[in-house]
Amino acid sequence: MNIKKLLGYQVLDSRGRPTVAVTITLSDGSLHTARVPSGASTGAHEARELRDAGTTKAESFYAGKSVYSAVENINSKIAPKLLGHSLNLAAIDGLLVEVDPTPGHQVIGANATLATSLAVAKAAAHASGKSLVRYFQPEGALLLPMPMVNILSGGAHANRSLDIQDVLVVPHAASNFAEALSWIVAIRERAASDGKAHGVTHLVADEGGLGLSFPTTDDACEFVLSQIEELGLSGKVSLALDIASTQFFADHKYSLTTSGQVYSPDQFVEEILDLVTTYPISSIEDPFAEDDWASWSAFAASAPAHLQILGDDLFTTNLHRLERGIAEKSANAILIKANQNGLLTSTHRVLDHAHANNFATVVSARSGETEDSWLADIATSWRAQQIKVGSTHGSERTAKWNRLLELEATEETEFARPFKAL
Ligand code: PGA
Ligand code: ZN
Known about the structure:
Its EC number is 4.2.1.11. By secondary structure, the protein is of the alpha/beta class. It folds into two domains: 3-129, 2-Layer Sandwich (Enolase-like, domain 1); 142-415, TIM Barrel (Alpha-Beta Barrel). The chain has helices at residues 57-60, 68-82, 89-99, 110-127, 132-136, 177-197, 217-230, 265-278, 293-302, 319-327, 338-341, 344-356, 374-381, 395-410; strands spanning 3-12, 18-26, 31-35, 142-144, 146-153, 166-170, 238-242, 249-250, 253-255, 262-263, 281-285, 308-311, 333-336, 360-364, 385-390, 413-415. Helix 2 (68-82) packs across helix 3 and helix 13 packs across helix 14 (395-410). It starts with a strand and ends in a 7-residue tail after the last strand. Zinc ion (ZN) binds at residues 242, 244, 285-286, 312.
Protein backbone atom coordinates (compact mmCIF):
# COMPACT_ATOMS: atom_id res chain seq x y z
CA MET A 1 0.00 0.00 0.00
CA ASN A 2 1.26 3.52 -0.72
CA ILE A 3 0.41 7.21 -0.47
CA LYS A 4 -1.93 8.31 -3.27
CA LYS A 5 -2.62 11.80 -2.00
CA LEU A 6 -1.42 13.99 0.89
CA LEU A 7 -3.26 17.19 1.68
CA GLY A 8 -2.51 19.83 4.31
CA TYR A 9 -5.17 22.33 5.41
CA GLN A 10 -5.99 24.69 8.25
CA VAL A 11 -8.34 23.68 11.09
CA LEU A 12 -9.07 25.13 14.54
CA ASP A 13 -7.71 24.13 17.93
CA SER A 14 -9.52 24.26 21.29
CA ARG A 15 -8.69 27.96 21.71
CA GLY A 16 -10.29 28.67 18.34
CA ARG A 17 -6.88 29.34 16.82
CA PRO A 18 -5.68 27.88 13.54
CA THR A 19 -3.62 24.71 13.48
CA VAL A 20 -2.46 22.25 10.83
CA ALA A 21 -4.19 19.06 9.68
CA VAL A 22 -3.03 16.52 7.13
CA THR A 23 -5.19 13.92 5.40
CA ILE A 24 -3.50 11.06 3.57
CA THR A 25 -5.37 9.02 0.99
CA LEU A 26 -3.92 5.54 0.55
CA SER A 27 -3.97 3.38 -2.55
CA ASP A 28 -6.81 1.31 -1.03
CA GLY A 29 -8.93 4.49 -0.92
CA SER A 30 -8.84 4.90 2.88
CA LEU A 31 -8.32 8.35 4.49
CA HIS A 32 -6.11 9.09 7.51
CA THR A 33 -6.14 12.46 9.27
CA ALA A 34 -3.92 13.95 11.97
CA ARG A 35 -4.10 17.36 13.67
CA VAL A 36 -1.35 19.03 15.67
CA PRO A 37 -1.63 20.89 18.99
CA SER A 38 -0.18 24.28 19.87
CA GLY A 39 1.28 25.76 23.07
CA ALA A 40 0.91 29.18 24.70
CA SER A 41 3.57 28.87 27.36
CA THR A 42 6.19 27.91 24.80
CA GLY A 43 9.89 27.44 25.45
CA ALA A 44 12.46 29.41 23.48
CA HIS A 45 14.17 26.20 22.37
CA GLU A 46 11.14 24.51 20.83
CA ALA A 47 11.03 23.57 17.16
CA ARG A 48 9.51 26.34 15.05
CA GLU A 49 5.74 26.65 14.85
CA LEU A 50 5.25 28.48 11.57
CA ARG A 51 2.54 31.15 11.65
CA ASP A 52 1.72 33.79 9.06
CA ALA A 53 2.59 37.45 9.28
CA GLY A 54 -1.07 38.45 9.26
CA THR A 55 -0.54 40.84 6.36
CA THR A 56 -3.00 39.54 3.76
CA LYS A 57 -6.75 39.97 4.18
CA ALA A 58 -7.30 36.22 4.75
CA GLU A 59 -4.51 36.11 7.35
CA SER A 60 -5.72 39.24 9.13
CA PHE A 61 -8.95 37.57 10.31
CA TYR A 62 -6.78 35.29 12.44
CA ALA A 63 -4.64 38.17 13.74
CA GLY A 64 -1.34 36.72 12.62
CA LYS A 65 -2.09 33.23 13.92
CA SER A 66 -3.08 31.58 10.65
CA VAL A 67 -0.97 28.69 9.34
CA TYR A 68 -1.50 29.07 5.59
CA SER A 69 2.25 29.10 4.93
CA ALA A 70 2.79 25.83 6.85
CA VAL A 71 -0.10 24.31 4.88
CA GLU A 72 1.39 25.59 1.63
CA ASN A 73 4.73 23.99 2.56
CA ILE A 74 2.97 20.65 3.04
CA ASN A 75 1.18 20.84 -0.29
CA SER A 76 4.01 22.24 -2.42
CA LYS A 77 7.18 20.92 -0.76
CA ILE A 78 6.26 17.78 1.20
CA ALA A 79 3.41 16.13 -0.76
CA PRO A 80 5.30 15.82 -4.09
CA LYS A 81 8.11 13.94 -2.28
CA LEU A 82 5.76 11.49 -0.58
CA LEU A 83 3.35 10.55 -3.36
CA GLY A 84 3.67 6.87 -4.22
CA HIS A 85 5.87 6.33 -1.15
CA SER A 86 5.38 3.20 0.95
CA LEU A 87 4.42 3.59 4.61
CA ASN A 88 7.75 3.48 6.39
CA LEU A 89 7.51 6.11 9.14
CA ALA A 90 11.26 6.35 9.83
CA ALA A 91 12.06 6.69 6.11
CA ILE A 92 9.40 9.37 5.63
CA ASP A 93 10.58 11.32 8.69
CA GLY A 94 14.04 11.12 7.12
CA LEU A 95 12.66 12.62 3.91
CA LEU A 96 11.09 15.46 5.90
CA VAL A 97 14.52 16.25 7.31
CA GLU A 98 15.88 16.31 3.75
CA VAL A 99 13.17 18.80 2.74
CA ASP A 100 14.27 21.07 5.61
CA PRO A 101 17.56 20.11 7.29
CA THR A 102 17.59 23.15 9.62
CA PRO A 103 17.39 22.39 13.36
CA GLY A 104 13.84 22.84 14.62
CA HIS A 105 12.32 22.82 11.10
CA GLN A 106 12.87 26.56 10.78
CA VAL A 107 11.95 26.73 7.09
CA ILE A 108 8.90 24.52 6.58
CA GLY A 109 7.66 24.60 10.19
CA ALA A 110 7.38 21.87 12.83
CA ASN A 111 3.59 22.13 12.59
CA ALA A 112 3.91 21.06 8.92
CA THR A 113 6.34 18.22 9.66
CA LEU A 114 4.52 16.85 12.72
CA ALA A 115 1.10 16.83 11.03
CA THR A 116 2.64 14.86 8.16
CA SER A 117 4.56 12.50 10.44
CA LEU A 118 1.44 11.75 12.50
CA ALA A 119 -0.78 11.19 9.47
CA VAL A 120 1.84 8.80 8.07
CA ALA A 121 1.89 6.87 11.38
CA LYS A 122 -1.90 6.53 11.32
CA ALA A 123 -1.86 5.46 7.67
CA ALA A 124 0.95 2.97 8.37
CA ALA A 125 -1.04 1.51 11.28
CA HIS A 126 -4.01 1.03 8.95
CA ALA A 127 -1.80 -0.54 6.27
CA SER A 128 -0.62 -3.12 8.80
CA GLY A 129 -4.19 -3.75 9.96
CA LYS A 130 -3.57 -2.30 13.43
CA SER A 131 -4.64 0.53 15.71
CA LEU A 132 -1.98 3.21 16.34
CA VAL A 133 -1.19 1.79 19.77
CA ARG A 134 -0.72 -1.72 18.35
CA TYR A 135 1.32 -0.39 15.44
CA PHE A 136 3.94 0.81 17.95
CA GLN A 137 3.51 -2.13 20.34
CA PRO A 138 2.18 -5.14 18.41
CA GLU A 139 2.17 -7.57 21.33
CA GLY A 140 1.97 -7.87 25.08
CA ALA A 141 0.10 -6.00 27.78
CA LEU A 142 -0.18 -2.25 27.21
CA LEU A 143 1.13 -0.03 30.00
CA LEU A 144 -1.56 2.59 30.65
CA PRO A 145 0.01 5.82 31.92
CA MET A 146 -0.63 7.44 35.30
CA PRO A 147 -2.53 10.69 34.68
CA MET A 148 -1.27 14.04 36.00
CA VAL A 149 -4.34 16.27 35.89
CA ASN A 150 -4.84 20.00 36.08
CA ILE A 151 -7.18 21.26 38.82
CA LEU A 152 -6.16 24.93 39.13
CA SER A 153 -4.78 27.01 36.29
CA GLY A 154 -2.89 30.26 36.41
CA GLY A 155 -0.01 31.85 34.55
CA ALA A 156 -0.33 32.21 30.80
CA HIS A 157 -3.37 29.91 30.72
CA ALA A 158 -5.67 31.83 33.06
CA ASN A 159 -4.91 35.50 32.96
CA ARG A 160 -2.28 35.12 35.72
CA SER A 161 -4.90 34.56 38.45
CA LEU A 162 -2.11 32.56 40.10
CA ASP A 163 1.64 33.05 39.52
CA ILE A 164 2.40 29.44 38.79
CA GLN A 165 0.81 27.80 35.76
CA ASP A 166 -0.87 24.72 37.20
CA VAL A 167 -1.73 22.89 40.39
CA LEU A 168 -2.28 19.32 39.28
CA VAL A 169 -3.07 16.06 41.05
CA VAL A 170 -1.59 12.59 40.65
CA PRO A 171 -3.80 9.68 41.82
CA HIS A 172 -0.66 7.70 42.59
CA ALA A 173 -2.34 4.97 44.64
CA ALA A 174 -5.18 4.17 42.22
CA SER A 175 -5.25 0.55 41.15
CA ASN A 176 -6.39 1.11 37.58
CA PHE A 177 -6.89 3.92 35.10
CA ALA A 178 -10.69 4.13 35.48
CA GLU A 179 -10.38 4.45 39.25
CA ALA A 180 -7.65 7.09 38.85
CA LEU A 181 -9.90 9.16 36.62
CA SER A 182 -12.91 8.85 38.95
CA TRP A 183 -10.86 10.31 41.82
CA ILE A 184 -9.75 13.23 39.65
CA VAL A 185 -13.26 14.03 38.49
CA ALA A 186 -14.45 14.07 42.10
CA ILE A 187 -11.64 16.44 43.14
CA ARG A 188 -12.36 18.79 40.26
CA GLU A 189 -16.11 18.83 40.98
CA ARG A 190 -15.52 19.60 44.64
CA ALA A 191 -12.96 22.29 43.81
CA ALA A 192 -15.39 23.97 41.40
CA SER A 193 -18.29 24.01 43.86
CA ASP A 194 -16.10 24.95 46.82
CA GLY A 195 -14.63 27.80 44.80
CA LYS A 196 -18.15 29.11 44.25
CA ALA A 197 -19.10 28.59 47.91
CA HIS A 198 -16.19 30.82 48.86
CA GLY A 199 -17.60 33.49 46.60
CA VAL A 200 -14.75 33.09 44.15
CA THR A 201 -15.87 33.37 40.56
CA HIS A 202 -13.83 31.24 38.28
CA LEU A 203 -13.12 30.92 34.63
CA VAL A 204 -12.39 27.68 32.86
CA ALA A 205 -8.83 28.08 31.65
CA ASP A 206 -7.24 27.01 28.36
CA GLU A 207 -6.57 23.48 29.56
CA GLY A 208 -9.92 23.19 31.34
CA GLY A 209 -8.52 23.89 34.82
CA LEU A 210 -10.26 26.25 37.24
CA GLY A 211 -8.93 29.80 37.12
CA LEU A 212 -9.52 30.54 40.81
CA SER A 213 -7.48 33.37 42.32
CA PHE A 214 -5.07 32.70 45.17
CA PRO A 215 -2.58 35.17 46.64
CA THR A 216 0.15 32.55 47.03
CA THR A 217 1.11 29.12 45.76
CA ASP A 218 0.77 27.82 49.32
CA ASP A 219 -2.88 28.92 49.42
CA ALA A 220 -3.55 27.16 46.13
CA CYS A 221 -1.90 23.94 47.34
CA GLU A 222 -3.85 24.03 50.59
CA PHE A 223 -7.12 24.53 48.74
CA VAL A 224 -6.56 21.45 46.53
CA LEU A 225 -5.30 19.40 49.48
CA SER A 226 -8.47 20.22 51.40
CA GLN A 227 -10.55 18.80 48.50
CA ILE A 228 -8.44 15.63 48.51
CA GLU A 229 -8.87 15.29 52.26
CA GLU A 230 -12.65 15.85 52.17
CA LEU A 231 -12.91 12.98 49.70
CA GLY A 232 -10.92 10.66 51.96
CA LEU A 233 -8.10 10.47 49.43
CA SER A 234 -5.24 11.84 51.54
CA GLY A 235 -2.11 9.78 50.98
CA LYS A 236 -3.58 8.36 47.76
CA VAL A 237 -3.51 11.49 45.63
CA SER A 238 -0.50 13.80 45.61
CA LEU A 239 0.04 17.25 44.16
CA ALA A 240 2.08 18.12 41.09
CA LEU A 241 3.01 21.70 40.24
CA ASP A 242 3.92 23.24 36.91
CA ILE A 243 5.72 26.39 37.99
CA ALA A 244 6.41 27.45 34.34
CA SER A 245 8.91 29.86 35.84
CA THR A 246 10.43 31.01 32.54
CA GLN A 247 7.28 33.11 32.31
CA PHE A 248 8.27 35.25 35.30
CA PHE A 249 12.06 35.17 35.08
CA ALA A 250 13.79 38.32 33.84
CA ASP A 251 17.04 40.12 34.68
CA HIS A 252 18.20 37.13 36.75
CA LYS A 253 15.22 37.45 39.05
CA TYR A 254 12.05 35.46 39.67
CA SER A 255 9.33 38.09 40.10
CA LEU A 256 5.91 36.93 41.27
CA THR A 257 3.15 39.31 40.31
CA THR A 258 0.25 38.27 42.58
CA SER A 259 2.29 38.18 45.78
CA GLY A 260 4.70 40.89 44.61
CA GLN A 261 7.72 38.92 45.84
CA VAL A 262 11.03 39.01 43.99
CA TYR A 263 13.67 36.29 44.41
CA SER A 264 17.27 35.86 43.30
CA PRO A 265 17.88 32.41 41.72
CA ASP A 266 19.44 31.16 45.00
CA GLN A 267 16.49 32.41 47.01
CA PHE A 268 14.07 30.81 44.57
CA VAL A 269 15.83 27.44 44.94
CA GLU A 270 15.21 27.73 48.70
CA GLU A 271 11.62 28.79 48.14
CA ILE A 272 10.89 25.76 45.94
CA LEU A 273 12.66 23.44 48.39
CA ASP A 274 10.41 24.81 51.09
CA LEU A 275 7.32 24.17 48.97
CA VAL A 276 8.17 20.56 48.11
CA THR A 277 9.02 19.69 51.70
CA THR A 278 5.87 21.34 53.12
CA TYR A 279 3.26 19.70 50.88
CA PRO A 280 2.78 16.15 49.49
CA ILE A 281 4.14 17.04 46.07
CA SER A 282 5.17 14.14 43.84
CA SER A 283 6.29 16.15 40.80
CA ILE A 284 7.52 19.66 40.12
CA GLU A 285 7.79 20.97 36.56
CA ASP A 286 9.91 23.87 35.35
CA PRO A 287 10.71 25.21 38.83
CA PHE A 288 13.47 27.28 37.23
CA ALA A 289 13.78 29.13 33.94
CA GLU A 290 14.67 27.40 30.69
CA ASP A 291 18.32 28.57 30.69
CA ASP A 292 18.95 28.84 34.44
CA TRP A 293 20.79 25.49 34.44
CA ALA A 294 22.70 26.31 37.67
CA SER A 295 19.51 26.56 39.74
CA TRP A 296 18.21 23.26 38.35
CA SER A 297 21.36 21.38 39.41
CA ALA A 298 21.53 23.09 42.80
CA PHE A 299 17.91 22.20 43.48
CA ALA A 300 18.21 18.60 42.26
CA ALA A 301 21.21 18.05 44.55
CA SER A 302 19.17 18.85 47.67
CA ALA A 303 15.60 17.88 46.70
CA PRO A 304 13.90 14.91 48.43
CA ALA A 305 14.73 11.60 46.69
CA HIS A 306 11.09 10.76 45.92
CA LEU A 307 10.48 14.04 44.07
CA GLN A 308 10.05 14.01 40.30
CA ILE A 309 11.89 17.02 38.84
CA LEU A 310 10.40 17.51 35.43
CA GLY A 311 11.84 19.58 32.58
CA ASP A 312 9.46 21.03 30.00
CA ASP A 313 10.80 24.39 28.75
CA LEU A 314 14.22 23.22 29.98
CA PHE A 315 14.38 20.28 27.57
CA THR A 316 11.76 21.09 24.88
CA THR A 317 11.84 17.41 23.80
CA ASN A 318 15.29 18.06 22.33
CA LEU A 319 17.95 15.34 22.50
CA HIS A 320 20.88 17.72 22.99
CA ARG A 321 19.22 19.58 25.83
CA LEU A 322 18.25 16.27 27.45
CA GLU A 323 21.87 15.08 27.17
CA ARG A 324 23.03 18.22 28.94
CA GLY A 325 20.42 17.71 31.66
CA ILE A 326 21.57 14.12 32.19
CA ALA A 327 25.23 15.17 32.36
CA GLU A 328 24.55 18.04 34.77
CA LYS A 329 21.96 16.13 36.84
CA SER A 330 19.53 18.98 36.29
CA ALA A 331 16.37 16.89 36.66
CA ASN A 332 15.14 13.29 36.70
CA ALA A 333 12.21 13.49 34.29
CA ILE A 334 11.31 15.00 30.94
CA LEU A 335 8.01 16.20 29.51
CA ILE A 336 7.53 14.82 26.00
CA LYS A 337 5.65 17.08 23.57
CA ALA A 338 5.85 15.95 19.96
CA ASN A 339 5.32 19.44 18.57
CA GLN A 340 8.31 20.80 20.49
CA ASN A 341 10.33 18.34 18.44
CA GLY A 342 8.56 18.19 15.08
CA LEU A 343 8.77 14.51 14.12
CA LEU A 344 7.36 11.36 15.63
CA THR A 345 10.49 9.22 15.24
CA SER A 346 12.84 11.75 16.81
CA THR A 347 10.34 12.41 19.62
CA HIS A 348 10.34 8.67 20.30
CA ARG A 349 14.15 8.69 20.29
CA VAL A 350 14.19 11.41 22.98
CA LEU A 351 11.80 9.36 25.12
CA ASP A 352 13.88 6.19 24.72
CA HIS A 353 17.06 8.09 25.56
CA ALA A 354 15.40 9.39 28.73
CA HIS A 355 14.37 5.88 29.79
CA ALA A 356 17.86 4.52 29.04
CA ASN A 357 19.23 7.12 31.46
CA ASN A 358 16.69 6.45 34.21
CA PHE A 359 14.72 9.58 33.52
CA ALA A 360 10.96 9.32 33.92
CA THR A 361 8.83 10.52 30.99
CA VAL A 362 5.50 12.34 30.93
CA VAL A 363 3.88 12.49 27.51
CA SER A 364 2.00 15.78 27.31
CA ALA A 365 -0.71 17.59 25.39
CA ARG A 366 -0.57 21.34 24.77
CA SER A 367 -2.88 24.09 25.94
CA GLY A 368 -4.21 24.39 22.38
CA GLU A 369 -5.45 20.90 21.50
CA THR A 370 -7.77 19.16 19.07
CA GLU A 371 -10.19 16.25 19.38
CA ASP A 372 -7.51 13.99 17.93
CA SER A 373 -6.54 11.26 20.42
CA TRP A 374 -3.18 10.02 19.05
CA LEU A 375 -1.45 11.22 22.23
CA ALA A 376 -3.09 8.45 24.29
CA ASP A 377 -1.88 5.80 21.85
CA ILE A 378 1.72 6.99 21.77
CA ALA A 379 1.94 7.55 25.54
CA THR A 380 0.75 3.97 26.07
CA SER A 381 2.71 2.13 23.39
CA TRP A 382 5.92 4.07 24.07
CA ARG A 383 5.54 3.01 27.72
CA ALA A 384 5.90 6.52 29.08
CA GLN A 385 4.23 5.65 32.42
CA GLN A 386 2.75 9.15 32.78
CA ILE A 387 0.47 11.40 30.74
CA LYS A 388 -0.55 15.05 31.12
CA VAL A 389 -3.52 16.28 29.13
CA GLY A 390 -4.82 19.28 31.10
CA SER A 391 -8.05 18.81 33.06
CA THR A 392 -10.97 16.41 32.67
CA HIS A 393 -13.00 19.21 31.11
CA GLY A 394 -13.41 19.85 27.35
CA SER A 395 -13.75 17.36 24.52
CA GLU A 396 -10.19 17.96 23.32
CA ARG A 397 -9.06 16.65 26.76
CA THR A 398 -11.67 13.89 27.19
CA ALA A 399 -10.77 12.55 23.73
CA LYS A 400 -7.49 11.38 25.28
CA TRP A 401 -8.95 10.15 28.58
CA ASN A 402 -11.72 8.31 26.74
CA ARG A 403 -9.21 6.63 24.46
CA LEU A 404 -7.32 5.39 27.53
CA LEU A 405 -10.58 4.14 29.07
CA GLU A 406 -11.30 2.38 25.78
CA LEU A 407 -7.90 0.70 25.84
CA GLU A 408 -8.41 -0.40 29.44
CA ALA A 409 -11.82 -1.86 28.54
CA THR A 410 -10.82 -3.59 25.33
CA GLU A 411 -7.12 -4.53 25.48
CA GLU A 412 -4.85 -6.48 27.78
CA THR A 413 -3.40 -3.72 29.99
CA GLU A 414 -1.61 -2.95 33.20
CA PHE A 415 -1.66 0.39 34.98
CA ALA A 416 1.65 2.18 35.49
CA ARG A 417 2.48 3.02 39.12
CA PRO A 418 5.52 5.30 38.77
CA PHE A 419 5.21 6.71 42.30
CA LYS A 420 5.44 3.48 44.28
CA ALA A 421 7.74 5.11 46.83
CA LEU A 422 5.00 7.46 48.00
P1 PGA B 1 1.60 25.08 26.80
O1 PGA B 1 1.65 24.73 28.33
O2 PGA B 1 1.01 23.95 26.05
O3 PGA B 1 0.78 26.34 26.75
O4 PGA B 1 3.02 25.36 26.37
C1 PGA B 1 1.70 23.43 28.85
C2 PGA B 1 2.83 23.25 29.82
O5 PGA B 1 3.58 24.21 30.12
O6 PGA B 1 3.06 22.13 30.27
ZN1 ZN C 1 4.97 22.99 31.45
